Amino acid sequence: MTTQQKKINAAKMALKRIRPGMCVGLGTGSTANEFINLLGQEKQLLKTLRYASSSIQTEMFAKNYSIICEDIDQFDQLDLTVDGADEVSRHGDMIKGGGGALLREKMLASISKEYLIIVDDTKMVEYLGKFPLPVEIINFSPNTTINLLKRAFKTCNLDPEIVIRVNGDGSNAITDGGNIILDCHCGEISDPNLLKKKIEEIPNVITSGFFLNMLNSV
C-alpha cells in the first residue's frame, strides 16, 4: 500500500467521527487535505457543520469544497479538530509544524473537546527527534535566538543543527502570523517535556512544534 493510500484510509476513519451540528477544526498539510477532500463529498453533512482552520492555506483549500471557515474567535469550543503530525511517539507525544502552522494548530487543539490526529505507520516512532523540531520565533534577532536555543538543547545533552526555514527561492518562510521558523535537527529527544520548557522560556520564542499530552485519538 502506498503512503498516499494510507493517508486516504486514515482520513476515511476520521470522517466516521463527524456528526451533524459539530464545530470542526481543520488542520494543515497533505493529510488534513485528504480529510477535507473526503468531507467535501458529504454534501448534506457539510451544511450542518461549522469550521475553524489552522492556516490560510487550509482556508483556501477548503473553499474548493464550499467549506467556509470562521475566525477562531467565533468559537468557545470545538467539538473535534482533525489534523496530521510529523511524528507521534509511543507515549502519544508529537512533533508538528512541518507545514508552518504550528501556532494556529496549537490554538485549535487547545479549544477542542477531542483532538484527532490522522497518520500512517511511517509517522509512528519510538522517540521524537528524527523529524526536525520547528520553533516559531518573532522575526527579530534570529542568530541570537539560535545561540540561546543551542544552550537550551545542551541542557538536554543535545547538539542540534539549527537553520532558518526558507522557501524555494531562498527567502525566509513566513508564517501566517508574520513570524519565522527555526528547524532544529537534533536526533532522539529523551525528555521532550524538559526541552519544551527550556525552549519556550526563551523570550523571542512564540511556540515550539512539541505537542505534548494533547492527543485524544490517533
Low-confidence stretches: none
CATH architecture of the largest domain: 3-Layer(aba) Sandwich
Q: Output mean pLDDT.
A: 95
**DSSP helical segment count:** 7
What's the number of domains? 2
The general outline is globular
Helix content: 25-40%
Order of helices and strands: HEHHEHEEEHEEEHEEHEE
**Secondary structure category:** alpha/beta
Fill in the keyword field for this structure.
alpha/beta, 2 domains, 4-stranded mixed sheet, 7 helices, 30% helix, 22% strand, globular
Descriptive account of the structure:
This protein is of the alpha/beta class. It folds into two domains: 122 residues, Rossmann fold (3-Layer(aba) Sandwich); 77 residues, 2-Layer Sandwich (Alpha-Beta Plaits), CATH 3.30.70. Helix content is 30%, strand content 22%. A hairpin with a 4-residue loop joins strand 4 and strand 5. The longest helix is centred in the first third of the chain and has 13 residues. It is globular.
Short description:
The protein is of the alpha/beta class and 218 residues long. It has 7 helices and 12 strands.
List the helices and strands and how they pair.
Blueprint lengths: L2 H13 L7 E4 L3 H10 L3 H4 L3 E4 L2 H8 L14 E6 L3 E3 L4 E2 L6 H9 L1 E6 L6 E2 L7 E5 L4 H13 L6 E4 L15 E6 L6 H9 L4 E4 L1 E2 L7
Parallel strand pairs: 1-2, 1-3, 3-6, 4-7
Antiparallel strand pairs: 4-5, 5-12, 8-10, 8-11, 9-10
